[in-house]
Amino acid sequence: MYFIDAENVKKVYAEGRQKHTVAIEDFTLQVAEKEFVSIVGQSGCGKSTFLLMVAGLEQITEGRLTIDGQPVNGPDPLRSIVFQEYLLFPWKTVRGNIEFGLELNKIPKKERSNISSEYIRLVGLTGFENRYPHELSGGMKQRVAIARALVNKPKVILLDEPFGSLDALTREGLQTELLRIWLEAKCTVLFVTHSISEAIYLSDKVAIMRKRPGKIKEMITIDLPRPRTRDVFISPEFREYERYLKELVWEDL
Fold this sequence. Notes:
This protein is α/β, with parallel strands linked by helices. It has helices spanning 47-55, 94-98, 100-104, 109-122, 138-150, 168-185, 196-202, 236-250, and strands spanning 4-15, 19-31, 36-40, 62-67, 70-71, 79-82, 156-160, 188-193, 205-209, 216-221.
């Protein structure tokens, strides 16, 4: 049994009584527990729609979608999502933002502080606990968002173009940091990106989607050793994966 199991999923958006849009159709994807899987495809192919359905923020129209054998019927604290926009509370500090979910769950203050300190260390923000979002760089804000997503110890973390608004150098640094965090947090990751090289570097597997209605065209296993360093980008094996995946994506242009 796969940890995330989507079989023949269909998502239809109604637009009035007569018109409707099929965003995803015959979508099948299986993800093992603690696996890192990226989804790549052109804009509008349904990548983010599928992520929202896994998060329980959108309902499937047809098909089957289960996590750990249980149907996805709505949001669950064991599934956390990180968006491209940081969505931090501007009036809360780094610690306050990270502790928000713990506070909702009525975790005592001292315990909240101990837990948030652990995740502040995990994402490399020690010393910035009392800073406010306007005092942070874009990369630091995204680290806060990742820590906030991890603090309730979810089984699944969903990332929707989390580095899309960052400059190239910051993005590269956070890719490596995300791998470190994932190895330490030991959770299952679904990662949506437009960047083929990013997907190869991060992932155990890369799912290529076709145009709307979106479905999985091909699932590629990335057989590159871990832990990975930036040196892998210049390896012949990496270049061959990049060439093949680009061909799959370009077929839909």
